User: What shape does this take?
Amino acid sequence: MLIQLKDNCNDKDFQEIVSVVKSLGYKPSEVVTQYGRYVICVGSAEVDIRIIGNLNGIKDVHVVADQSKLVSRLWKVQTTEIPLGDGIVISRDHLTIGMGPCSIEDEEQVIRIVGFLKENGVALMRGGVYKPRSSPYSFRGHGLEGLKFFYKHCQANGIKVVSEVMQVSQVEEMHDYIDIYQVGTRNSQNFNLLDELGKVNKPVLLKRGMSSTLQELLASAEYIFSNGNEKVILCERGIRTYETAYRNTLDLNAVPYLKEKSHLPVFVDPSHGVGVRAYVEPMALAAVMAGADGLLMEIHEVPERAVSDGDQSLNLTEARRCITRIRETVRLRDSLYDLTPYQATDPDH
Amino acid sequence: MLIQLKDNCNDKDFQEIVSVVKSLGYKPSEVVTQYGRYVICVGSAEVDIRIIGNLNGIKDVHVVADQSKLVSRLWKVQTTEIPLGDGIVISRDHLTIGMGPCSIEDEEQVIRIVGFLKENGVALMRGGVYKPRSSPYSFRGHGLEGLKFFYKHCQANGIKVVSEVMQVSQVEEMHDYIDIYQVGTRNSQNFNLLDELGKVNKPVLLKRGMSSTLQELLASAEYIFSNGNEKVILCERGIRTYETAYRNTLDLNAVPYLKEKSHLPVFVDPSHGVGVRAYVEPMALAAVMAGADGLLMEIHEVPERAVSDGDQSLNLTEARRCITRIRETVRLRDSLYDLTPYQATDPDH
Amino acid sequence: MLIQLKDNCNDKDFQEIVSVVKSLGYKPSEVVTQYGRYVICVGSAEVDIRIIGNLNGIKDVHVVADQSKLVSRLWKVQTTEIPLGDGIVISRDHLTIGMGPCSIEDEEQVIRIVGFLKENGVALMRGGVYKPRSSPYSFRGHGLEGLKFFYKHCQANGIKVVSEVMQVSQVEEMHDYIDIYQVGTRNSQNFNLLDELGKVNKPVLLKRGMSSTLQELLASAEYIFSNGNEKVILCERGIRTYETAYRNTLDLNAVPYLKEKSHLPVFVDPSHGVGVRAYVEPMALAAVMAGADGLLMEIHEVPERAVSDGDQSLNLTEARRCITRIRETVRLRDSLYDLTPYQATDPDH
Amino acid sequence: MLIQLKDNCNDKDFQEIVSVVKSLGYKPSEVVTQYGRYVICVGSAEVDIRIIGNLNGIKDVHVVADQSKLVSRLWKVQTTEIPLGDGIVISRDHLTIGMGPCSIEDEEQVIRIVGFLKENGVALMRGGVYKPRSSPYSFRGHGLEGLKFFYKHCQANGIKVVSEVMQVSQVEEMHDYIDIYQVGTRNSQNFNLLDELGKVNKPVLLKRGMSSTLQELLASAEYIFSNGNEKVILCERGIRTYETAYRNTLDLNAVPYLKEKSHLPVFVDPSHGVGVRAYVEPMALAAVMAGADGLLMEIHEVPERAVSDGDQSLNLTEARRCITRIRETVRLRDSLYDLTPYQATDPDH
Assistant: This one.
């Protein structure tokens, strides 16, 4: 059960609500976000929700049988829109492309990639400055200094920045130089980090863990939301399976599933999802038709010389062509569907 | 190494070729198919293929480092075309849709589905008469009698039949009532069955095993081909992973991979691949953009009453809309690519 | 629900039983085996089994909620004993060791291995004459001729033979030269083969499919049993996972699970389960403590020269030491447990 | 390549070593631990190590082709011993049992469990005070206050404490109340946390990630070691597979593999590994025979009332019996092997 409180819900109203919820056998948790105030009620008793609906201070009450409540589509039918500023909005109506190198290598690189993105109308740049690396002896990124020059050039050109945060202490450090925090696959269940990201008013792109179920992904999103931050983007990036022909197995089934279960926007990262340069474009276009709200892709001027992930990065010629094709595919999708794909498929589902 | 023999290669030429191949440290196997005669040479020595190219009776010699030789694209660049008769051809240029119920339930059902397919221009009907079922107490299909009425109504309407063969003895039984033999996921490495299907002159649609690697799928196709049958279609149908949110994990990465490695046409079965009715259409469209040459989908007049797989079958209204959308997506794909998707992505790959 | 019929149950009694079962909303299937006659009732209605227990011709009635009925421990508490002749019995009380080469290579090899087994008191020899190979160009075994000399030397020395059967037609061919049919991992859901093996009166060792769930393994065993053959042995041999450090992931959890759910004996194949020679012995001993009733292991006089699976075969020195250690471990296990391990752990479970 | 420096290696010697290493095409990293000083050299050139061995300040040079150097057995043949104080030592020669509840629930519980452990001679108690929970609304542990009373009662009775650390800031907080830091499966690749744990002089028990390869586990251990802490314990705790019959798939293959590849002690957690109470004991005994150096097990006075993981916790009667059986199994293992199991199996490996 999820209770939306009115703005003018006062302490007395609130205590009464909590007390009624408890008397019904539910455990209430208060949640305050940028946009609203909620009481999340966990329990399994059968309840006539009108008992609660009639209390003072309540805007609406929803039965949400899903394990994760705040991120569920059961109480919020429209896909969440996330404004990034400068008129750039992540939304169902407008597929977002995010591109950039795996690691930010140097300032010149940033300048050239920013130029490329601007020229091609791409509004979001990705790039890592804190790199999770299996071996302690590998290059681990340029850190905060890298982020500063990365952000500076993007901001000057109206391009938004998404970059990975790896630990609690970086949340504050990165805050002024970032538009979207990215949580990487290895931190998808780093609950302390998720708690902390729930306390800032910046969007968070949450990647699925390497072997996370989608229920776990939604529960991780619930962590961020229940700590106060509604601006969460889910991201499918390939899972670990027995198949060794490619780096990961991109699970596009996840897209219609997440779109049905949650109101959060869903991105796909075909670069990590397949890990082979020649297959990235077809998988990006497939992701569009599966219903993705955004794509995250690795590009590099000379992939062969990239400090990491060169095997899966498109060069700029390939990237330009891919952008065109993504847009044509989105245009087709828009012409086929008024609603989101999964809804259109089966109106009675 | 793969040697194509000339039609007029005589016994003496052939013995000479075999003897040279052996002297170079390779193990030769002769393969005779509907379309040609080959010597497959397994070994790892470095060889100057001109030594062989100059022998009598040889049409061409190819270095094929891939484990599976005959199905490799390294010696045959164009995607194989498989004519089904009546002008129907499985090919790169024309995406084939195959639809029908999981199990053939009765003759009336066949008549109605055939009518639907004809009306919608679908040239291939699927339907099982031998059903692999986990439990010995479940319905196991109508067998040969079912196949006969299934085939009769399809043939009368110019529709081709694809149906699962489960054991060696059925290959001959089914021969006169089938256009494409289907090998199911549980028989994908039933090597005796593959051997036998290599000896008939009818196409074989080979599904990927539930946890087969793509190398294993290609090796299974090589079994059929090396026994004499070049008409093999590969089919991705979802793999088994840890994720329990859907029946299987449809692995669309497999499509560009198989298209690059093999000249055989590649189908996708989104119905089994995801197993949830509302997600079948988006996954079908995604498969098109990933590069599929054909789609195999389950439909049923009243999915809720299907004897098997109702949860993943589209009803006829959904199927009609889906066919339209598939065709629009194919039209887009054709407009974006002159060549196959994976080739266009990276000309230097 | 599982009904055991009396020997003297006549036609009239039987018809009455079937009719009552149907009237209760259950679907009955008659099963006749070497040892008894049963009616398996599939359905989900709540039934007072005394209604059935009072009918004529009935020996006993059991509620068996498990999906697979005949192989369930819910109606048969003691582990099944399978006599092989000459006083050799597969049973809970006496761990059976089966050893031999992956492929039977030649008659001299058989003679030497038989000598080794006799000297070390090992009563079961394994060895493949029909080999499932991924590539059609690999050695596929000596076939029936190989089986004949394999069997001849074993029989002459009181050693029993277990060997893989790959297709229906081989069941009869192999019948006179075999003591236990082995169903390999790739045929674990080859239902036609299982049906056929249900019709012979020889034990069947059923390997778990490469990615079969244990429920599927039990359902495959139910196929054999429900066709008339109660002499089924289950075998864990490693599953396919993402881990590439070894050939398969030996799932020893399967042992206590299968021992609890089924009355069938459970074997473990540590050779395929790990696929690395140096790890085979510790995994064999671990399997004993996990509760295995038997072990199947690959040995070879010169593993480095084996035509297949040399990497996982013990040489004879290693095998001798391993046999001693297995026996010491079994002795410890017997001293710790009166009952099967899983029962002793938790009497109230 | 791994270079061990002498205690008296001075700055000049060191600079010379670094300079020679670089000139050979290797990238050197200095590592200083509690016990020694090393230069880790990453590269792939062929080198005659005598060139380095002759330099001043060098104790020994080892070719270590493994990806992870410091944790490799290639330079350190004996299993690392980790003293915990009060004469308690984790070592090859003496299997360590650690037991306790999943979560520390209250002080009375700690007192009773400590009493049980003391009575049964168990020297290590486990128990969580920071709990990683999928849902943000679940109980997340008593935190530092819980750890304090947990530690107080253990210390008073000569029992050592192992408890999970979830984030960097807790490393210092927990330092004075802990004997072994535990890194949970979800943090197995939380590289910042691993870095931090490398800077303290307390042992770290590192659990394998839910879907980590063993190479990744070793690389995570290398993070801790290369930051200065040699006291690392590896722990297998079950991996995620397609099988749903139990919570995880305990991968005992990992034990002989890790024992061969690394000199670090290897623990097994059968409680999480199988997740079913009745199967915990057989899997614990199997782990002993597979070669484990320690076992971590969940116990609870009334498992049915545990706040978490009751399904996999032994009650005290079961635990007492299990301890006895573990010790008998260890006694057998010691009598069979002079060396570690894997070495004894194949002296020429």
Remarks:
- The longest strand of chain A covers residues 27-32.
- Chain A has twelve helices and 14 strands.
- Residues 316-336 of chain A form the longest helix (21 residues).
